[in-house]
Amino acid sequence: MITQSTASIPVQLAAVRARILAAARDAGRPPDSVGLIAVSKHQGAEAVRAAWDAGQRAFGESYVQEALDKQAPLAELAIEWHFIGRIQANKTRPIAAHFDWVHGLADLGHARRLNDQRPAALAPLKVCLQVNTSGESSKGGVAPAAVADLLAACVALPRLQVMGLMTLPAPAADVRRQREPLRALRLLRDRLATPEHPLDCLSMGMSDDLEAAVLEGATLVRIGTAIFGARPYNDNAAH
Length: 239
Known about the structure:
This protein has one domain (about 10-230): TIM Barrel (Alpha-Beta Barrel). About 35% of the residues lie in helices and about 15% in strands.
């Protein structure tokens, strides 16, 4: 994990918030319509605490054991923990017990395990169904055509609360190309939403495509690098 100074985190966090507000204004959206998840994977507990002290409350983690090791020394903070990595069947129990949200749900078997393993004392686990809007074999998520069936099965699980959809599109250099897969997710949500299940959450947008995501209706953006600095290596988890 990175152990660099945390002194710059409040400044960088404020800059990200300013970007979100500017993007919301450009999109004609209320400033409070976009939430921020600070992606703290590969960061130490001290970095999370520095962001908390600067007003950040939601944090995203991609690796279960790393997250658990980090949650212990931060237990006194009322952090909203989001699991944003790929789900493994042998890790569903700690995910169900130690996270408030899951953003990468793309398998009915995983959904059933999370439902069955969610502690009764906790509120239903909030989940976003991951959609592979770019068609990349290296990315997780279900194909757009398969989302309706997965959604129907997941909303029937009482210990899960389906909040909306999530995507991690292929990188693109210009805003027009960035917006295409994000728009596809929004349009898919619009087709699937019902009064009973409005799918209000669109989890999309990272450090490099935040503005495009907000323009296309993102309600949660997952930002790591722009807040905490560069990571020692790249992986496929959202940042």
